Amino acid sequence: MSVYCTIPNSVTSIGNSAFYNCSGLTSVTIGNGVTSIGQYAFSNCLGLTSVTIGDSVTSIGDRAFAFCTSLSFITSNPITPPTLGANVFYDVPESSTVYVPCESVPVYKTNRDWMVFSNFYGIVPLQTPTLTVTQQNNTLQIDCQSTAAIAYELYRNNRLLATLRTTTYIDGDLKDGENYCYQAKAVENCESLLSDTVCKVFNRDSVGIEELHLRSYKLQVYPNPTNGQLTITLSACRFGTKNYELREDAVIEVYNVVGQKLLSIESLKSTETTIDVQHLASGMYFLKVGNKTARIVKE
């Protein structure tokens, strides 16, 4: 018979050997009023599989959970890890899962008393991100959105593609006609569930000099390849019977092949702009203007 025990918030301490050798006890929830757990309090509870420690606990006595060989899940709510006496978790499996407050994961992992365990997870998971994938000339742009997320792991076709500190990734390692499927999860001590899968068939544009029509202007990038100076020329365009005025507020951004933004010019003040990419290492980069992207090569 399974026995579940909830210790109410009105209790402030659990005495020595209070539940010693209660073999039928399977789950314990310790209320938030408890500040200390005595020696041998739950020792030798062979059927105990899970314990939740209230957020006010500051100390746990010697061998309090010793010989709880079935204990698989420990939830420790205190932000500061409780101080442990000798052999508190003696003979408890090292592989047990320990849930702690998100911001405290690194602290528990490096705390001398709690280092007997290796599987720490945040109690409150991050929000699962939403993904959008759009083709920008000869690249795919992946945008990740999740409330309060600091970093993302981005997967392509079920393999880790990149770890991001920004919400946008430019994928240029693509083959014409291939279908690419992306997922992401938010990570920062805690991690979210994987997002829904978003797939996109990549169709390569014809390339030469990069000419991008952004509806209101035509953009040219040259010389390409370049050995240091890159000229960007904007000119007004005409579509059908309507003339479009030149936009002079377009943002120019340069990304490397792993999606890291290396350069940003917030506003163009003339129809021809030269930017210096001499400091960039030789290789392929992506120049982004508005919602279009051009591939550039630095020699």
What does this entry look like structurally?
The structure is a single chain. The chain has 299 residues and is mainly beta. The protein has three domains: 3-122, Ribonuclease Inhibitor (Leucine-rich repeat, LRR (right-handed beta-alpha superhelix)); 130-201, Immunoglobulins (Immunoglobulin-like, Sandwich); 210-298, Macroglobulin (MG2) domain (Immunoglobulin-like), CATH 2.60.40. 2% of the residues lie in helices and 44% in strands. The protein is built from one helix and 28 strands. A six-stranded parallel beta sheet has the order 1-3-5-7-9-10. The model is unreliable at 206-215 and 238-248 (pLDDT under 50).
Could you name the key traits of this structure?
299 residues, 44% strand, Leucine-rich repeat, LRR (right-handed beta-alpha superhelix)
Explain the layout of strands and helices:
Blueprint: E1 3-7, E2 13-14, E3 25-30, E4 36-37, E5 50-53, E6 59-60, E7 73-76, E8 83-84, E9 97-100, H1 105-110, E10 119-122, E11 130-136, E12 139-145, E13 151-156, E14 159-164, E15 168-171, E16 179-188, E17 190-191, E18 198-201, E19 210-213, E20 217-222, E21 229-236, E22 238-239, E23 242-243, E24 252-255, E25 261-265, E26 272-276, E27 283-289, E28 292-298
Parallel strand pairs: 1-3, 2-4, 3-5, 4-6, 5-7, 6-8, 7-9, 9-10
Antiparallel strand pairs: 11-12, 12-15, 13-14, 13-16, 16-17, 16-18, 19-20, 20-21, 21-26, 22-23, 24-25, 24-27, 27-28
